[in-house]
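step=encode ok
step=design start
structure_in=
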């Protein structure tokens, strides 16, 4: 079994791409209010939720019916391409993965059918662990919840 890999999924959204992206780029603390699978978020280190590299956030979330935790830092932000790369570690992630990078890209399509692309790049500690397919389901469901809530706002 391979210890490293990459998984990706694209989900169509009805909310405007800019509004979806801005939630993650400027209101990350508010994600828990839009998605029932995110139970709690808090700024653990730093003063700005959106500071690249130094701000550290703690997340509590549900995947496959189980509560998980991790810490996260923003690795990079590309405003032009509406892309944010996060590094997740410690907690449940750190037990199973040496590296776990989560990338969000919000894609504006000319036909009005905007999409959200999530990519997970990972390296596992041990071969016994399965690839993080539960994460793909998690981001898919979260995207659906967030999209529905953004349409109401």
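sequence_out=
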């Amino acid at each position: 079994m391979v210890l490293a890999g990459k998984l990706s999924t694209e989900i169509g959204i009805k909310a405007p791409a800019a509004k979806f992206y801005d939630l993650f780029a400027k209101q990350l603390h508010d994600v828990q209010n839009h998605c029932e699978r995110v139970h709690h978020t808090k700024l653990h280190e730093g003063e700005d939720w959106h500071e690249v590299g130094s701000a550290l956030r703690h997340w509590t979330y549900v995947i496959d019916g189980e509560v998980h935790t991790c810490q996260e830092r923003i690795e990079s932000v590309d405003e032009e391409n509406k892309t944010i790369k996060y590094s997740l570690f410690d907690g449940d992630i750190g037990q199973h993965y040496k590296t776990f990078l989560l990338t969000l890209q919000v894609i504006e399509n000319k036909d009005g059918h905007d999409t959200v692309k999530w990519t997970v790049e990972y390296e596992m500690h041990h071969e016994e662990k399965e690839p993080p397919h539960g994460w793909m389901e998690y981001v898919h469901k979260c995207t659906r919840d967030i999209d529905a809530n953004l349409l109401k706002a």
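step=design ok
step=annotate ok -> The chain has a mean pLDDT of 92.
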